[in-house]
């Protein structure tokens, strides 16, 4: 979910010319990717 929200913020920042919003979107997108990987690792460790 963070990846989608991050992508939307990033694109909105690009369109609006708002570099802060664009950066916030990139950070949120990365946060989502990290959460996804942590979930995958936990799933593997539980097996």
Tags for this model:
mainly alpha; 91% helix; 47 residues
Average pLDDT over all residues: 94
Radius of gyration: 13 Å
Could you say which structural class the secondary elements and strand pairing correspond to? Answer: mainly alpha
Number of helices: 2
Compute the separation of the termini in Å: 25 Å
Strand content: under 5%
> Largest sheet, if any?
none
Oligomer: single chain
How many DSSP E strands?
0
Helix content: over 70%
Write the element-wise H/E pattern from the N-terminal end onward: HH
Envelope shape: rod-shaped
Poorly predicted segments:
none
Summarize the structure.
With 47 residues, the chain is an all-alpha fold. Helices cover 91% and strands 0% of the residues.
Describe this structure in words.
This protein has helices at about 1-15, 20-45. It contains 2 helices and no strands. It is rod-shaped, with a radius of gyration of 13 Å. The mean pLDDT is about 95. With about 45 residues, the chain is mainly α. It has one domain (about 1-45). The two termini are about 25 Å apart.
Present the secondary structure layout:
Elements: H1 2-16, H2 19-46
